[in-house]
């Protein structure tokens, strides 16, 4: 036991470990807050879809030789998020199909463009690291950590200030729009916030992890808690704990960071499902 | 004193009209039932009245101090709501959102209003319960309490009894009639149930191939009247 602590203390001395932990936890917090809304709106896969879109946009900017791909990537992703989350009632293509279409389409076009106009020697390596999360969470600079902290603070503030509105729009969009003309605006706000979180997270932790961070904590919390507030709070706390634990385990065991975090999330989900079943059994 | 006027209104989607040249008024305290077959445009009309979509032609006006966003709305339930983790209190309170505008949180007054409407619907014992665990009739009461938080003057109900058993249906109709009588809230209700419409409503709007608008008594004497008689006969057998 003391060996583990000694090892942790040793790693704690390296700034990149601390950065990874801080950034991982912040992203986990933001994505789990939005995750509850997304899962309930039947948009669980939007994280995956949008990160593929971001990948496509990145390849385009790489081909164009842009020095900074952030503005283009963020712009394109925000536009796609808005298109996807726009009121789904009367659209011809429903939510899940639209996500599948945009995500696979963007992925294919991005890969095609990168292949045709390749500028890199290790193409498949680049692609793989974008999709499955590179080691980039371990190579963060101080500026990136501050950027991430700033944006996270912004997302959390927006979420708290608009909490009641987000609940209303998520539970019953038609009612919200009927009694409040601004409801469409809140949908837009949710879409933009999600796009920002995803672009941010994708650069840092890869797209596999984003979906897991969006979906698992929310679903786990829903197994046990029965009010929207409790689910949201539980999901945020759970997400932060699982991510921190996942990062620590991956450091100690030398496993890949992203997949270790997902493994911890899965374990938590199994525990919460069991707890929910026990709880429901005694209540019924 | 009129609360709602539809003047030569046509409603529909994508520029195609489903219903054309509709004229009717709702006065304070009226109980209007909108009846008609599936696909006759009842739900589209209701969405247009609520301002969820613009009318294709004509205009809808509100009066008597009623604003379009002060109409309480009881929508049909969506699939997503069936497993939504939310407590009854949270849902009823969300009916107050129009009152608080850009203010991020609900104030004491709004919380009090939510409590009063929960009492009115006799669901105090369910306040802390989870919405998805309630029966169909209880869920409708919760949504009705939410609609009451959004209005003091007019309720729009979209098939409020669909999927409820006869006993709960009768209770629901009684509850709505009481709101109309005691609180003076105008009711506009979409329904398939012509027998109940004739029993409770003061006015009927029948849409379909021919359009009828008038009081219940006029409706029974109208050409569409025999349809009701048939319906009643069918129910009696």
Which chain pair shows the most residues in contact?
A-B, 31 and 40 residues
CATH superfamily of chain A: ABC transporter involved in vitamin B12 uptake, BtuC
CATH class of the largest domain in chain B: Alpha Beta
Give the mean pLDDT of chain A.
81
Structure description:
The complex is a heterodimer of chains A (about 280) and B (about 240). Chain A has a single domain, classed as Orthogonal Bundle (ABC transporter involved in vitamin B12 uptake, BtuC), CATH 1.10.3470.10. In chain A, about 80% of the residues lie in helices and about 0% in strands. Chain A has 13 helices and no strands. In chain A, helix 3 packs antiparallel against helix 4 and helix 12 (about 230-255) crosses helix 13. Chain B folds into 2 domains: about 1-65 and about 155-170 and about 185-215, Rossmann fold (3-Layer(aba) Sandwich), CATH 3.40.50.300; about 85-150, no CATH class. Chain B has 9 helices and 9 strands. A 6-stranded mixed β-sheet of chain B has the order 5-6-7-3-8-9, sandwiched between helices. A 3-stranded antiparallel β-sheet of chain B has the order 2-1-4, covered by helices on one side. The longest helix of chain B has 17 residues, at about 165-180.
């Amino acid at each position: 036991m003391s060996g583990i602590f000694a090892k942790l203390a040793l790693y704690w001395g390296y700034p990149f470990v601390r950065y990874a932990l801080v950034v991982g936890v912040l992203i986990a917090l933001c994505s789990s807050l939005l995750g509850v809304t997304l899962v309930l709106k039947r948009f669980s896969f939007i994280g995956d879809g949008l990160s593929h879109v971001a990948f496509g946009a990145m390849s385009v900017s790489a081909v164009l030789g842009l020095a900074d791909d952030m503005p283009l990537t963020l712009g394109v992703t925000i536009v796609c998020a808005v298109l996807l989350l726009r009121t789904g009632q009367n659209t011809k293509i429903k939510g899940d199909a639209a996500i599948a279409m945009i995500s696979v389409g963007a992925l294919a076009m991005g890969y095609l463009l990168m292949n045709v106009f390749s500028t890199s020697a290790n193409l498949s390596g680049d692609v793989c690291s974008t999709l499955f999360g590179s080691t980039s969470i371990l190579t963060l600079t101080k500026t990136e950590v501050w950027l991430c902290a700033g944006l996270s603070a912004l997302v959390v503030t927006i979420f708290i200030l608009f909490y009641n509105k987000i609940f209303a729009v998520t539970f019953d969009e038609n009612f919200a729009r009927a009694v409040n003309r601004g409801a469409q605006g809140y949908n837009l706000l949710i879409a933009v916030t999600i796009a920002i979180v995803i672009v941010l997270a994708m650069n840092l932790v890869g797209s596999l992890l984003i979906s897991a961070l969006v979906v698992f904590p929310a679903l786990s919390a829903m197994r046990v808690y029965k009010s929207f507030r409790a689910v949201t709070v539980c999901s945020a706390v759970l997400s932060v704990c699982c991510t921190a634990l996942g990062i620590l385990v991956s450091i100690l065991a030398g496993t890949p960071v992203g997949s270790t975090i997902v493994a911890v999330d899965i374990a938590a989900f199994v525990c919460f499902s069991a707890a929910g079943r026990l709880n429901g059994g005694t209540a019924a | 004193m009129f609360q709602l006027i539809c003047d030569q209104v046509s409603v529909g989607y994508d520029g195609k009209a489903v219903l054309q040249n509709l004229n009717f008024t709702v006065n304070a305290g009226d109980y209007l039932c909108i009846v008609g077959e599936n696909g006759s445009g009842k739900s589209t009309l209701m969405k247009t009245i609520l301002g969820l979509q613009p009318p294709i032609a004509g205009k809808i006006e509100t009066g008597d101090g009623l604003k379009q966003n002060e109409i309480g709305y009881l929508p049909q339930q969506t699939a997503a709501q069936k497993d939504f983790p939310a407590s009854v209190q949270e849902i009823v309170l969300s009916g107050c959102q129009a009152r608080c505008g850009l203010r991020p949180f609900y104030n004491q007054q709004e919380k009090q209003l939510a409590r009063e409407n929960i009492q009115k619907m006799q669901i105090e014992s369910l306040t802390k319960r989870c919405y998805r665990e309630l029966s169909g009739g209880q869920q409708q009461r919760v949504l009705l309490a939410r609609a009451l938080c959004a209005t003091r003057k007019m309720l729009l109900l979209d098939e409020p009894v669909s999927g409820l058993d006869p006993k709960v249906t009768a209770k629901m109709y009684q509850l709505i009639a009481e709101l109309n009588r005691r609180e003076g809230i105008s009711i506009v209700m979409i329904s398939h149930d012509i027998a109940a419409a004739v029993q409770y409503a003061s006015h009927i709007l029948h849409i379909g191939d021919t359009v009828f608008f008038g009081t219940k008594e006029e409706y029974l004497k109208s050409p569409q009247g025999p349809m009701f008689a048939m319906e009643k006969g069918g129910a009696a057998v």
